[in-house]
Amino acid sequence: TTPAQLAAAIPKAELHIHIEGSLEPELIFALAQRNGLSLPYPSVEALRDAYAFTNLQSFLDIYYAGASVLLHEADFHDMAWAYFLRAKADNVVHTEIFFDPQTHTARGVPMATVIQGLSSACERARAELGVSAALILCFLRHLSEDDAFATLEAALPYRQHFIGVGLDSSEVGHPPSKFSRVFARCRELGFHVVAHAGEEGPPAYIREAIDDLKTERIDHGVRSLEDPALVAELARRRIPLTVCPLSNLKLCVVDDLRQHPMKRLLDAGLCATVNSDDPAYFGGYMNANFVQTVEALDLSRDDVITLARNSFEASFVSATRRAELM
Ligand code: HPA
Ligand code: ZN
After folding, report:
1. ipTM of the assembly?
2. Can you tell me the distance from the alpha carbon of 304 to that of 307, in angstroms, rounded to the nearest whole number?
3. Whether residue 199 lies in the annotated active site
4. pLDDT by position in tens, the chain (length 326)
5. Which residue has its alpha carbon closest to ligand 1 atom 10?
6. Which helix (H) or strand (E) segment is 241 a member of?
7. I want to staple 167 with a disulfide (CB 3.0 to 4.6 A). Which of 67, 195, 294, 316 is the partner?
8. How many domains does the chain divide into?
C-alpha cells in the first residue's frame, strides 16, 4: 500500500466539520423546493460556480445564504445523514460535528428543531452505520457575547444532545477574549471547549484561546508556526490542532497544497489532525483532504498513522468507545 492508499483505508476520526458546510448544492436546491423557497441562483451549476472564494468572509457570506433553506427538523436530519454516508465511505468511525444555532434561530427556526434534527441523525449513524457522533455548539464570533449567552440559555434544555461548545465565523477583529465569560460558564457546566483560532487571525488569538478560554483543542491553528514559543507550548501540552488542508487552499490561507504547513506541524511534534471543515464548499470530504495532503507533501506511511492516531487522541470519545476504536 502507498501512503495515500493507507490514508484512505485507515480508520479515523473527524473533529472539524461544520454540518452546515456539508450542504451540497443539490441538497440546497432540493430543500428550497421542498420548503417553497426561491434561491438567488438559477441552477445547481450556477450556485457551484459562485464557490470561488478569496478569504474566509467571502466564503461565510455564501455559506450562511446556503443554510437559509434549513427550516424543519427533517431538513437538519437529512443534511446530517448525507454527511454520515460520506463519512462512512471515507472510513471515518467517529465524528464531532459543529453546528451554528444562531444562523437558524436568527431566522426564526426554534433551537429544538435544530438540535433534535441533528441529534436524531447522530443516533441513526451509530445504529445503522456504526459511526459514533457527537455535537459541538458553536457561537458566532461576529455576534456579541450577550447573544452567545442567550444562545447557551436556549440550548440548555437540550444539553444532553451536545458535548461541547466552539467559536467560529469571522475571526479577525473578534478575538477569543470577547467570549471569556460565556466560555467560563460553559466550562462550569461541564462542556468541552474548543475554538477556531489562527486560521486568518494572528498567533496571539491562539494564545488567548488556550489561556483565556482554556480550550482543549484549537481549530485550524496553522498560524501558530509564526510563534515558536507557542508551538513549543502546544506540543508540550499536547493541545491538538484540527487542521483543514482543502479549506486552507480554497480560502487562500495557502497558495498551493505543496506549501501547506501540515508536515511542519507534525515535525514540530504537534498533535495535528486532518479534517474537512466545510466539505461541500471546499472540494472534498475527509479522504479528499487526507489523500491530497499526503500526495502534495509526500507524507510517509508513518505520518499517516500518526495523523490517524492523533485524531483519536484529540477526540472527546468516551473511554469505552476509545477502547473499541484504538
Ligand atoms: N472558519 C470560521 N468559521 C467557519 C468556518 C471556518 O473555517 N467554517 C464555517 N464557519
Ligand atoms: Zn471551521
Report:
1. 0.96
2. 5
3. yes
4. 999 999 999 999 999 999 999 999 999 999 999 999 999 999 999 999 999 999 999 999 999 999 999 999 999 999 999 999 999 999 999 999 999 999 999 999 999 999 999 999 999 999 999 999 999 999 999 999 999 999 999 999 999 999 999 999 999 999 999 999 999 999 999 999 999 999 999 999 999 999 999 999 999 999 999 999 999 999 999 999 999 999 999 999 999 999 999 999 999 999 999 999 999 999 999 999 999 999 999 999 999 999 999 999 999 999 999 989 88
5. 169
6. strand 241-243
7. 195
8. 1
Does residue 298 contact residue 260 with C-beta atoms inside 8 Å? no
Residues listed for the chain: 326
Cβ of 103 less than 6 Å from ligand 1: no
Domain of 228 in residue numbering reads as 3-325
Residues 6 or more apart whose Cβ sits within 8 Å of residue 325: 11, 13, 93, 94, 312, 317
CB of 219 shorter than 6 A to ligand 1: no
| Cβ of 21 less than 6 Å from ligand 1 | yes
Mutate to test the pocket of ligand 1, among 14, 60, 194, 252 (most ligand atoms within 8 A of CB): 60
CATH number at residue 71: 3.20.20.140
- 192 among the known binding-site residues? no
